[in-house]
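Batch manifest, entry 17 of 40.
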Amino acid sequence: MAGTMKLSLSLPLASLCKAPNFLNPPTSFLQKDNVNSLRRSTKWNPCNGKRGGIVCGLPLPVDPWAPTIDSQSIASQLFAFSLFPYIGFLYFITKSKTAPNLTLFGFYFLLAFVGATIPAGIYAKVHYGTSLSNVDWLHGGAESLLTLTNLFIVLGLREGLRKIENSQEDETSSTPNSSSEE
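Output type: structure tokens
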């Protein structure tokens, strides 16, 4: 059963790598020799009979039509890859010394959310046999860390805006008004 399922599921890929049916003309006014030579030609077919992880000459790590590809596996790979640009963002925002301290702490605290979500997801998969989003108490605990992250970032930005407003008020009150001197 599994062998026939796999064979039937690879048919879309197989149909891309063989000669199309329209090259077999139903009428006899075309010369059959030209049609057969076109069918045997390898220039038009970039696949050249290869099947598997290759889609018409483009090497792909997975077969895009395979039913075993699920959004969970792709999402986890993208999630893992997204840590590299985020660490670069943390490096440059720390180096610039322009972010308020609480906001900077909030951005770093997001790593705590990531660090807690990964083991929680593994635990949900092993212990409950499902994803983290289906186990309410684990998912809620992980999302509470994300809520704290958002609070730290927003409160830090609010503190930074208030400092800017206070410094601007101090500058305007310390400079003498030119109209009052006359």
